[in-house]
Specification:
Elements lengths: L17 E12 L2 E12 L3 E6 L5 H8 L7 E6 L2 E2 L5 H7 L1 E4 L11 H8 L6 H14 L1 H5 L10 H13 L5 E5 L7 H18 L2 E6 L2 H7 L2 E6 L2 E7 H6 L1 H7 L2 E5 L5 E5 L5
Parallel strand pairs: 3-8, 3-9, 6-7, 7-8
Antiparallel strand pairs: 1-2, 1-4, 4-5, 9-10, 11-12
Helix pairs in contact: 3-6
Bound molecules: adenosine-5'-triphosphate.
Keywords: Amino-acid transport, ATP-binding, Nucleotide-binding, Transport
Organism: Aquamicrobium aerolatum DSM 21857
Family: Belongs to the ABC transporter superfamily.
């Protein structure tokens, strides 16, 4: 693994099981401050979900971690180094892979060629072949379509391919941006079951951005809620699922007692 010591001071000490530590990050689009001093931690072997409404800054935070965007301030501590501002390929070589929102598979390349692109940092052909079969074992439909152009796959299959392509880089940490976007409920369930299995069986630590809070928290160990570029809640996934604020905002419901003393649910509009 290449060393990715970046700008800023030496990495401060952190707990042994913290694999990724984001500290006081600020990111901008020109004059627009999209990330306003975000700090969070991802522990080894965990699935961490990042929730928040449209425009909260989730994708921007992921892009900042993966090196697609440079933060203006703050540190991203990974593997004992501050990788804030590192180039995306250095971040991948260090073991963090970003599966972007919208999948972004190479439409004219075949499934197999897309997977090979994911292994661009590797030269161990036998290992690449083995990992390709590993990906096919998790996503058998991709094995059936290995010679098909990725652009002809369904949305769900493209999502599987994007995850599979990410796995080909042998990541220690995977950043998954909205894996459920545009998929049917059944497919969402299937994808999340596979995400869980990859986490458990392949030991990949996962950080995932999701609009679908229920699914995301059910699969996660820990969760953060973002609003307007800041973290506004952080807790175990179990406690977040039970949190009234999360239920009201994300499930769009508000509990109230009916006249007969039974709990009913009604629509509520805003977070606050
Ligand atoms: N390319 C861009 N140029 C300028 N502003 C942007 C750009 N991309 C995002 N923003 C702004 O940055 C803020 C954070 O956007 P971001 O996409 O990170 O939010 P998000 O939580 O991922 O939302 P979504 O779920 O809609 O993807 C928003 O105010 C958004 O309008």
């Amino acid at each position: 693994m290449s060393v990715v010591a970046m700008k800023g001071s030496a990495a401060p000490a952190m707990a042994d099981d913290v694999v990724l530590s984001v500290r006081n990050i600020e990111s901008y689009y020109g004059p627009i401050m999209a990330i306003r001093g975000v700090s969070l931690e991802v522990r080894k072997g965990q699935i961490v979900s990042l929730l928040g409404a449209n425009g909260a800054g989730k994708t921007t935070l992921m892009k900042t971690i993966s090196g697609v965007m440079d933060p203006e301030k703050g540190q991203i501590i990974y593997g004992g180094n501050n990788i804030a501002g590192a180039s995306p390929d250095k971040v991948v070589r260090a073991g963090i892979v970003h599966v972007p929102e919208g999948r972004e598979v190479f439409p004219l390349l075949t499934v197999e060629e897309n997977l090979r692109m994911g292994a661009f940092i590797r030269s161990d052909n036998a290992g690449i072949k083995r990992d390709e079969e590993m990906v096919f074992s998790y996503f058998p439909i991709l094995a059936e379509r290995r010679h098909q152009a990725a652009g002809t796959l369904s949305g769900g299959q493209q999502q599987m391919l994007a995850i599979g392509r990410g796995l080909m880089a042998q990541p220690k940490v995977m950043l998954l941006d909205e894996p459920s976007l545009g998929l049917s409920p059944l497919l969402v369930k299937e994808i999340f079951q596979i995400i869980r299995r990859l986490n458990r069986e392949q030991g990949v630590t996962m950080m995932l951005v999701e609009q679908n809070a229920k699914v995301a928290l059910e699969v996660a160990d820990y969760g953060y809620v973002m609003e307007l570029g800041r973290i506004v809640m952080a807790d175990s996934a179990e406690r977040l699922l039970q949190s009234k604020d999360v239920q009201e905002f994300y499930l769009g419901m508000q509990a109230e007692e009916s006249q007969r003393g039974q709990k009913r649910w009604k629509q509520k509009k805003t977070w606050r």
